[in-house]
Amino acid sequence: xxxxxxxxxxxxxxxxxxxxxxxxxxxxxxxxxxxxxxxxxxxxxxxxxxxxxxxxxxxxxxxxxxxxxxxxxxxxxxxxxxxxxxxxxxxxxxxxxxxxxxxxxxxxxxxxxxxxxxxxxxxxxxxxxxxxxxxxxxxxxxxxxxxxxxxxxxxxxxxxxxxxxxxxxxxxxxxxxxxxxxxxxxxxxxxxxxxxxxxxxxxxxxxxxxxxxxxxxxxxxxxxxxxxxxxxxxxxxxxxxxxxxxxxxxxxxxxxxxxxxxxxxxxxxxxxxxxxxxxxxxxxxxxxxxxxxxxxxxxxxxxxxxxxxxxxxxxxxxxxxxxxxxxxxxxxxxxxxxx
Length: 339
What we know:
Strand content: 15-25%
Order of helices and strands: EEEEEHHEHHHEHEEHHHHEEHE
Distance between the termini: 16 Å
Helix content: 40-55%
Shape: globular
Number of strands: 12
């Protein structure tokens, strides 16, 4: 029997990057792209490489292009770390795993290193596959914590819970990472919400830019831990923006959203402008020049925003394509996930 699992890219609608700093966010996953894992029983445990793990190139130019796209590490380390954390979790809670091995392989169509949570999608799909293989279940909030531990603790990748929560719940989620609640329960307050189909959202990403989230978080973390007032104030404001966006969506008050989403990005520029590259800034400015709103979906490389009508969307496509930026209408996943 071959077990097949899927996880999707994440788009943060509002509140990021406060998720790693006891803030509030709203995020969803969308099915335009996916990370897929196949797992089946075999005599030995084996993790199979995918395209992003290739180490054979036609020439130095091809090698350099691969590094720019995928970085210096491929996906095998994600599978290996996920398996280690899965095993540790089972031992910690007293689950004795059946003595059997598996082969696991992955593939992903999620644009890489562009703020769409492609790495955590691979890990989420891998975790789901291993839980199913051993006949186990896991709560979405716990799954999100395991995926975060895989990246942050095993691989030393700076990250927050937002991406993993959206991917674990597989539906739009309002997340409140209240400090006291997190310290007491180990998870935030997560509420699945509905994003209406008539809300005009787009996602756009550069095809000539790849940058890991550590570029932002390594700088922001230092200021936050040092208690820099403007950073602490920004975290509070991102939380307020999240609540206001949720209220506007629930009331179908879509005209209030552009200013709120734009403020989310403008606030980022105020507190960590040095972590925003010129190409990322140009992408936001190009989108806003059409009348659309624009903010990062994550930590850079991709943006999300609202547009008024199809005429504005066509202008958005035209302007962004001239700048080597792809634009899509996200197909939001809403069915949730069960293991």
